[in-house]
Amino acid sequence: MKDIIGFCGINCSKCPAFVATQKNDDAEREKVSEMWSKQFNVSIKKEDINCNGCIVDSPNLFSHCKVCEIRKCGKSKGIENCGYCDSFACEKLTAFMDMVPDAKNNLMSFRQNLK
Fold first, then answer.
1. What is the pLDDT of residues 40-56, one digit of tens each?
2. What is the Cα gyration radius of the chain?
3. Residue 44, SS3?
4. Where are the domains of the chain?
């Protein structure tokens, strides 16, 4: 399967919520919900761990991705991901990439291939 790179550059294919959804594995969903609840100090239920990746139109989308400003922007522009955006890298994206270097690397790869 080809990797799914989200608008922000995260590799959705490697995201624990995506993996648990694709496996349809409730035990995996439970592990992810516990891990993220502790990591982000919020309550996440295993029922919340359903995601087919942020670039696809699907009712299965992790709660944060549903409200993600980067995703909303990319969807409104009709681009594959932010690496293809004429405004790369905007302030929101730069702040995010500073926190998630792997996402930045993914988007930079797309940028280099545009040349």
1. 899 999 999 999 988 88
2. 14
3. coil
4. 12-114
DSSP codes of every residue in 63-87: HHHHH-HHHHHHHHHT-SSGGG-TT
Structure tokens that stand for 93 in this block: 């994206």
Residues with Cβ within 8 Å of 19's Cβ and at least 6 positions away in sequence, in order, are 13, 28
| Six-digit token string for 47 | 């029922």
The pTM (predicted TM-score) of the whole model is 0.83
Residue 19 CA to residue 51 CA, distance in Å, equals 8
Convert the pLDDT of each residue in 19-78 to its tens digit: 999 999 999 999 999 999 999 899 999 999 999 988 888 888 888 888 899 999 999 999
d(CA 70, CA 28): 27
